[in-house]
Design goal:
Elements lengths: L1 H6 L9 H17 L1 H15 L4 H5 L1 H7 L4 H23 L12 H24 L14 H5 L1
Helix pairs in contact: 2-6, 3-5
Length: 149
């Protein structure tokens, strides 16, 4: 991506060719800074996830030693990559904002529907049987039966 961007300096809408060149250099330095993490990701992908190395399947502990990769490392690599893409896209197209998946928060909506359905079930049960349903209830689920007494 950085090589392609360097070849297209005049096409940057939100930067002069000099500013675009500086943004690309800054991005390249960011990539160099996380190169060990990128190498570990590549090794994990090639040797374990893609099963390209038969020896890895037999000894995955050796891969863990050769391609040490922690969650903070992975988060750093993804964060730095996002910064790079956002900054260059801003310079090239004049667009800015965070990268996110459309619908990336769908799980929150699904959990809210589950919580709401559980509350409705609890309230209907308590109304029908006249006593509190035993067990945990969502924090914001009303306790109408207990309020009536």
């Amino acid at each position: 991506m950085l090589r392609d961007a360097a070849e297209q300096l005049p096409t940057f809408l939100n930067a002069t060719p000099k500013e675009a060149e500086e943004a690309i250099l800054k991005a390249a330095l960011r990539v160099v800074a996380i190169q060990p993490i990128l190498d570990a990701i590549r090794r994990r992908r090639n040797e374990w996830l893609a099963h390209l190395d038969p020896g890895t399947v037999a000894d995955h502990a050796a891969l863990a030693a050769r391609a040490k990769l922690t969650m903070p490392d992975l988060e750093k690599a993804l964060g730095e990559t996002e910064k790079t893409v956002v900054e260059l896209f801003n310079r090239h197209q004049g667009v800015f904002g965070e990268l996110e998946f459309i619908g990336g928060d769908d799980y929150e909506m699904a959990l809210n529907w589950i919580r709401s359905a559980k509350c409705t079930f609890i309230e209907n049960y308590e109304r029908e049987f006249g006593h509190p349903l035993q067990g945990p209830r969502p924090r914001d689920c009303s306790n109408n039966l207990l309020k009536m007494h």
